[in-house]
């Protein structure tokens, strides 16, 4: 089962530095992320998103996932996605099943102007090593698990079959 992890930072630069460390941890096989995203909310309140996708052939899926997630969380269209009837239904499934309201509210509270957050979708992790490496960046950890059935529904809706 994949887990969505979000870590909020009190400035605009730390999430980017932490994402570089997360990529290093992935290369060292300490974490196994499917996707990593950084969202920065500048002092004027505008959102800036950077994403990376680790699943081979999954780039479109994760790009759409981040677009739906950030659109749902912040009520702004991220990544310029066109949302048709199918994607609108998918947004409802994500909102209903995967990301609980408490998680949504905590993310919105955390990402005030002049802050940033690191988002990871992680398949597996060596907790002690990952925590030791990422703890030097500080931040507030928020976490929401994506249930297996919701992950499969997301994959099926976007690609026609679950990811292997």
UniProtKB/TrEMBL annotation:
A Pfam family the protein falls into: DUF1269
Segments crossing the lipid bilayer: 64-90
InterPro entries: DUF1269_membrane
Record has Membrane as a keyword: yes
UniProtKB keywords: Membrane, Transmembrane, Transmembrane helix
Protein name: Membrane protein
